User: Which sequence fits this backbone?
């Protein structure tokens, strides 16, 4: 894989989490494929991948993600936590990821511009409801 440039990678990253099988024991690529089979869905199905994150991934990552939903803090700080502890990445493109996370947070909180020049306003209660809904379905 990758012309031998990364000999530790046995099966390349798939999906949202770029789940990878590695020579040092990670089997998240295979786990995603097996989970998809048990759910009678394709591995690339978005709902399946989100469900895998919460219910099919290894217990460590499931637990970490559920705890992550309870976090508060800046979008930049949360992006770094997610990058380091869930993605298992020590900081690749950290500043870019923090910038994008902050931009998305601002857009979600303040609303989105519409093609007609208007503004779609966000409802803080709705945003909290979505966060709560994600958390409730993670337990």
Assistant:
């Amino acid at each position: 894989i990758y012309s031998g440039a990364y000999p530790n990678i046995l099966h390349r990253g798939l999906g949202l989490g770029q789940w990878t099988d590695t020579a040092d024991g990670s089997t998240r690529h295979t786990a995603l494929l097996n989970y998809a089979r048990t759910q009678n869905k394709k591995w690339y199905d978005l709902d399946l991948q989100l469900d895998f994150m919460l219910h099919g991934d290894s217990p460590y990552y499931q637990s970490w993600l559920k705890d992550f939903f309870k976090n508060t803090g800046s979008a930049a700080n949360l992006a770094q936590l997610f990058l380091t502890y869930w993605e298992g990445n020590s900081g690749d493109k950290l500043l870019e990821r923090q910038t994008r996370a902050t931009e998305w947070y601002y857009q979600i909180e303040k609303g989105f511009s519409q093609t007609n020049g208007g503004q779609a306003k966000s409802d803080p209660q709705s945003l909290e409801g979505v966060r709560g809904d994600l958390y409730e379905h993670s337990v």
Remarks:
- The CA atoms of residues 54 and 62 lie 5 Å apart.
- The chain has two domains: 1-57, 59-139.
